[in-house]
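Complex record, two chains
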Amino acid sequence: MTSKIINMADKMKDAEDRLLESLFESAPIADDGFSVRVVRKIRRRLWLRRLALPVAVAVGGAFAIKPLAALVTLVVGLSGLLPQEALLSASHFLPKLQYIVLGAMLLGAGLLGLGALED
Amino acid sequence: MDQSEDHQLVARVVSAQDTAAFGELIRRHQSHVRNFLRKLTGDYAVADDLAQDCFLHAWDKLDTFSGSGSFIGWLLKVAYTTFLQAKRKSKRYAEILEQAGHATDTESAGQEARPDEVTDLDRFLAVLTEEERAIMVMSYACGLSHREIGEATSLPVGTVKSVIFRGKEKIRTSFDIKDHQHG
């Protein structure tokens, strides 16, 4: 008797679950370009993130150029206070300014090129 | 849907930021996610916007997918979180849900929407709270197991079961299921 009740309860539960499943059931939604739109957004965001650092460096550099120049002038002025022999030996080991600028430009171009290649 | 293929695609995305692999993941699961959000919001346009946000969040958080459960379970968790965040942010949601006939938690259940747009499912969903609605949709529309729903909603399996039971009870008491079954 008890098992009959349990079986009936199970059957009722199954029927109810089936009914709910059929009610909640809906036809698959066609993609209709949805995935393409999302991927395009993601690529745009990636591209913007990669561009953000070089742009920030360029903008920061533009703002920093004037105080930097003033600092260089100050350092050059101070160098007159140092003994000439020490200056000569130090300049022997330091790269020239044009090499530093060229190196920075090559590094920047390389980073941008790598970013473009990844895209 | 093959879970191992999902996991392979996820690995490609995480290791190489492969947008094509992520596109394939979207193609495979967009229907479930959009369906889930459509049933939750009752508004197709809003649901599709949320689905886009959901996939963008998924892209950002994909490295947190452990691979122990199904990818769709994890994705629906992101979708549900996206829905809750958007709802918190926007008052417009309350208006939309109201218009669609879905009662919000703070409002009285069973508000009537325009009769020409209300389906049986809308009427059933309207008597449920938001949490019950999400769990019932995950269970009956998306076919997630109780464990997967628990992971998606951060609730214990026992709570998921009792929410489903309560949801069914509400539907049963609010509507005559037998009458409905026989037309």
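Note: Chain B touches chain A at residues 17, 19-20, 22-23, 26-27, 30-31, 34-35, 38-39, 48, 51-52, 55-56, 59, 120-121, 124, 136-137, 140-141, 168, 171-172, 177, 180-181 (CB under 8 Å).
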